Amino acid sequence: MKVTEAKEWLLAEAAKRGVDLEVLSTSDRNLRLETRGGEASDVHSSTRSGIGLRVVDGGRTGYASTEELSEDALAWALDEAIENASLTPANGAALPAGGPLGRVDLLGEGLSATMEDKLGSAAELEETLTADPRLQAMQFGRYMETEQRLEIGSSKGVDGGYRAGVAVLMAGIVMREGESVKQGYNLHAEGDYHQLEPGRTALETLDKVGRHLGARPLESGRRRAVFEPEVVGVLLQLLAFSLSGKALAEGKSKLEGKLGQRVASPLITIVDDPTLPGALGSRPFDSEGTASRRLTLVEEGVLRSFMHNSETARRTGQPNTGHASRTYASTLGVKPSNLLLLPGQGIDGADGVLITDLMGVHAGANPISGDVSVQAMGLESVGGETFPVDDFAISFNLFELLQRVSAVGTDLTWSYGFGSPIQAPSLCVEDLSFAGG
User: Fold this and answer.
1) What's phi and psi for 348, nearest 5 deg?
2) Which domains does the chain have, with CATH numbers?
3) I want to staple 246 with a disulfide (CB 3.0 to 4.6 A). Which of 55, 138, 220, 334 is the partner?
4) What is the pLDDT of residues 286-333, one digit of tens each?
């Protein structure tokens, strides 16, 4: 069967069984290309797709999935979901009501270039990087793309689908200047392959890594700190945990009980906008078929909302914000779309440390408590002179740090390496403790 036929068959069978059913089909097609010496060295293509079932029966929820769309496989999956529901306690669960959502194509011809063209982009990226005499080693240079399809239908009237995709150029390099050796990576992502610029991405990569060559140890002490946009993106990803209705419902959010209260500097406004034209996290509706809308999470430092799906909304008594996330093989979760920290009035160039990289965030940051203790790299400015520094550590509590933000930059930058697209400017804190090596 085709996906739409399987969906209709399952919904008809669920009606006969007297249970509510949500049918979610997701498909991911991935392509990765790497070159060495201008020739293809690695070509990898994969597709993963299937249908996920969420049954609600008597206030109980059960999940099942199948990658096979035969009638027997679909019948087995429906039986499995109904049985799984019978094994869970009744908690008032219900599928959200909905209606026709249409079929939306957010990708268009965005990935329509030939394989030869895509290999050429990876080769141009490599060529520009290796032309720099400071390049000691090229760890990888690659082109990647993902095409995603989602189809949903439910007993409550939800019916729709959409298609999206992303094209990425990414490089990891090692650079040397004298005795100084530094390594790092960079990526650039677009919703349209034709908007990628391999030469520009290569030059940005060289600048991002090369600016740290010749770094000297930073002396311990307290200084003014400016967090670069990509570093702010890391901090926002940590904050997103506490803004999640799932964390709130499970009693793990540090922001529990703080709706309407000040949780950050008045300079901080954070929104999530799945309707942003051309942004990589945009979607017409979430994984339950709830229509997308712009949501203000923090407004001038005041907590205005958490991100919710229908289940976390019910459990917390708060509105469903349309942030349901799941694949055919997973259970219901919560995820931001395009997380945005709005720009401010700018940051002056006073003395201090520009923090450009955080290392070991996954091990050194606790998203529940907000405690962060990591190694970092940066650029120090003293008396108008700027030079690279490393071998230092910073420790702070994220929630306390946000209260102390003294300036917000205008340098909005997208970052993509942390689960969801995040757009943020630089942030300044007037006093932060640095532990030198």
Assistant:
1) -75, 170
2) 3-207 (3.30.2290.10), 215-437 (no CATH)
3) 334
4) 999 999 999 999 999 999 999 999 999 999 999 999 999 999 999 999
